[in-house]
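Section 3.1: Structural characterization of target chains.
Under the original work plan, the team committed to producing a structural model for every single-chain target entering the pipeline before any wet-lab resources were allocated. The record below documents one such target. The sequence was received from the expression subgroup and is listed exactly as submitted; it comprises 135 residues.
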Amino acid sequence: MKKRGQKRCSKCKAPNGARSFECKACSHPFSVKVARKKKVRQIGDWRLIEPNALIRVVSGSGPYYLDADGNRHYFSDRGVYRVVSIDNSGLHCYPESGGGHTYLYMGPEVKSDLCHNMWRAPHKLLTVNRRLAPS
């Protein structure tokens, strides 16, 4: 009888670990399911994004604060946003989860004029494969 976390070899019926690739008794290979990778595409030229499009913002991107230990603390939230308009250095958006207006900076990485340890950096944007709901 097999225990939890085990599988039996189809050739010799010996119990094996659930994550093993071959039988430890007879070296018979187990069939392994290959998971499909999701196609995630980074948006190349953000200026080509049209209003009302959905985009995904990746965590660990955008403007950040540099603490005394050299760690970055990012200001932007990750998630899906709906683009309202585009200007010369970024996107005006609203989060799909609800909330207020958000500006996604897309210009070059530069030190902020406001504080010596803050940096303006571009956000990393991905495509969203959902269809737009009629508005």
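The CA atoms of residues 21 and 33 lie 11 Å apart.
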